[in-house]
């Protein structure tokens, strides 16, 4: 993405985020803050379900079906998305399908996080990954967007990069096919057969992530500004060790 285009997207993110909470939204946020919540977001483009770029939405749909709540999607105008409130092993879970374009998906995610009382580290983004072949999936624990516009929008709007992601491989185009045409295209018949098993594996992995009990390290690690995750980890490590020599060395580095 060119520097000018990237700057324009950042401005759009900020403008769309400028809508204030109504009193009713504040009351609802307080209600939803009772108990920790997690959120799973299927990144994609509205109206383009079934394309490679929107495979995150496909995975989210498979998760909703596994949970038996696929008929409970409801539109939420405030968050510009569709939402399901569910539960996985006593953990309250919000499923979110943004209804904004991929480049500004983060606006929907940030608004939903505020409304439903979900911390950034408890937001699991599901998205397509060019650098992995179809059939490969992987969890990434925060960090840079790695060139993915939807993830970049989430990092910008949430102002942190700690969100874990489930990356669904779609592979790179072959021959003379452009990247844009590849990601916006639909899976071939042969690819669809492989995708079916990918959906099963992805839902299994999501349920595993949602069922995990919060570790002590997670509770000690606060949300960090974008690009500051490693620095936050080092600060917490120094705090636990209580070593003034390490603090001094870090200050000089």
UniProtKB/TrEMBL annotation:
Listed Gene3D superfamilies: Peptidyl-tRNA hydrolase (3.40.50.1470)
GO terms, molecular function: peptidyl-tRNA hydrolase activity; tRNA binding
Protein keywords: Hydrolase, RNA-binding, tRNA-binding
CDD domains registered for this protein in UniProt: PTH
Major enzyme class: hydrolase
Chain intervals for the UniProt region annotation (Disordered): 213-253
E.C. designation(s): 3.1.1.29
Tagged with keyword tRNA-binding: yes
Coiled coil region boundaries: none
Family listed: Belongs to the PTH family.
Listed name of the protein: peptidyl-tRNA hydrolase
């Amino acid at each position: 993405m060119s520097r000018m285009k990237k700057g324009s997207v950042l401005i759009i993110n900020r403008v769309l985020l400028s809508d204030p909470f109504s009193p009713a939204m504040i009351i609802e946020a307080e209600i939803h803050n009772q108990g920790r919540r997690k959120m799973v977001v299927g990144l994609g483009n509205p109206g383009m379900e079934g394309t490679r770029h929107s495979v995150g939405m496909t995975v989210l749909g498979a998760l909703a079906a596994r949970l038996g709540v696929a008929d409970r999607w409801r539109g939420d105008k405030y968050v510009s998305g569709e939402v399901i409130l569910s539960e996985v092993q006593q953990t309250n879970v919000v499923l979110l399908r943004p209804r904004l374009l991929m480049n500004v998906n983060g606006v929907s995610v940030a608004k939903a996080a505020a409304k439903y009382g979900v911390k950034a580290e408890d937001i699991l983004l599901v998205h397509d990954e060019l650098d992995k072949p179809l059939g490969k999936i992987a969890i990434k624990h925060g960090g840079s967007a790695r060139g993915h516009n939807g993830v970049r929008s989430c990092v910008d709007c949430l102002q942190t990069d700690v969100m874990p992601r489930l990356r669904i491989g779609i592979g790179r185009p072959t021959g003379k096919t452009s990247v844009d045409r590849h990601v916006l295209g639909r899976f071939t018949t042969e690819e669809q057969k492989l995708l079916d098993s990918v959906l099963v594996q992805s839902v299994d992995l999501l349920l595993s992530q949602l069922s995990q009990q919060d570790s002590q390290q997670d509770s000690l690690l606060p949300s960090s500004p974008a690009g500051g995750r490693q620095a936050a980890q080092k600060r917490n490590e120094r705090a636990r060790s209580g070593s003034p020599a390490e603090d001094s060395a870090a200050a000089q580095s």
